[in-house]
Amino acid sequence: ITHGFEGDAYISAHAYKSSIEELDDLRKWANSLGIKVNAYSPYFVGNSLFVKYFKNEFGDEYKQGICRDLWVDNWKTLQQKRPSDYYCPIIDWIVMDEEGELLLCCSADEDCASYSGWGSIFDINSYEEYREVKEQMLKSETCAECRKWGIDYVVSHNTYY
Description:
Layout: E1 10-14, H1 20-32, E2 36-40, H2 47-54, H3 60-69, H4 75-81, H5 127-138, H6 141-149, H7 151-156
Parallel strand pairs: 1-2
Helix pairs in contact: 2-6
């Protein structure tokens, strides 16, 4: 308000197991200023890592580290809660790299089969052309695998409080 801001202000923060006290302090401070805090439990940066986790392909030591740092207890529950007709909000986003090359989505990574190779945003001349590219993306192996494992739902509903 001091600088003329009107509306709701939000702070998004990751809730690691080791930072809960800091998050509570952030929430108290933000609330005193009328700012809302959205705390999200961090997750893997990359669908290929989620698939490995769900397939139980990580070694015990690596998996213990994941479980020590991240809130993973609800991932299987979220997988099971995913409605069969779930509409992933990322579908509506345009994701590209620093050179304007279209990428599948912000949750995919270079180890995903369909991560890149979708062309340049600078070659798209209309919204209709972009929708055609997006339709092809949605038919990709990586999108199918994401839906199969419920990764889209886990990422979108992985809130702490």
